[in-house]
Amino acid sequence: MAEGLESPHGSEFLIKTGLPSASTVNSSLKRLVVSGYMIQEKGKYHIDDPFFSRGIYWKRNK
Questions:
Q1: Count of beta carbons in the 10 Å neighbourhood of residue 39
Q2: Which tens digits make up the pLDDT trace of 9-62?
Q3: Fewer CB within 10 A of the terminal residue: the chain, N end or C end?
Q4: β-bridge partners, 39
Q5: 29 domain residue, yes or no
Q6: DSSP-assigned letters across all residues of 1-62
Q7: pTM value?
């Protein structure tokens, strides 16, 4: 996700991640931005917390 996530509401992303709906993605992203884990710049979402980023990377690559 270093390059940023541009379309987390699209069907391709939902299928890839197994998330049920775009509204779930939207509410989750809002919470992550408010909590300071992610930022939104120029229409893309980026992980702002390096520890959060490492945790996600570690979990996905077990």
A1: 14
A2: 788 888 888 888 889 888 988 999 999 899 988 888 888 988 988 988 888 787
A3: C
A4: 46
A5: yes
A6: -TT-BS-TTSHHHHHHHT-S-HHHHHHHHHHHHHHTSEEEETTEEEE--HHHHHHHHHHHT-
A7: 0.69
